[in-house]
Specification:
The protein is an all-alpha fold and 107 residues long. The protein has one domain: Domain of unknown function DUF1476 (Major Prion Protein). Helix content is 83%, strand content 0%. It is built from four helices and no strands. Helix 1 crosses helix 2 and helix 1 packs across helix 4. It starts with a helix and ends with a helix.
Length: 107
Amino acid sequence: MSTFDDRERAFEAKFARDEDMAFRITARRNKLLGQWAAAKMGLTPEETDAYAKAVVQADFEEAGDEDVIRKLLGDMLAANVEIDDATVRRAIEEQTVEARRQLMESK
């Protein structure tokens, strides 16, 4: 029974690590998305930092990426930046890859 218990604990630990990494990747991605959008809107460095944090916070409104997409589209359209849903979704994919790369390099 000890081997089974050890295996179960190992699977639980791996699951916890994987979930933690997924959370970190999403948070880093959202920060990068905020910086990307801020550059398109022409924000100052101070405004960029605040905006990136706001995008990270927006992701806690509901599960999935729709809350972040709504925020980015709404803010960018309000700032008279021509953007569409497909461009934002493509940026999400690109920034996810970049966030994963950054986190892997930092380990």
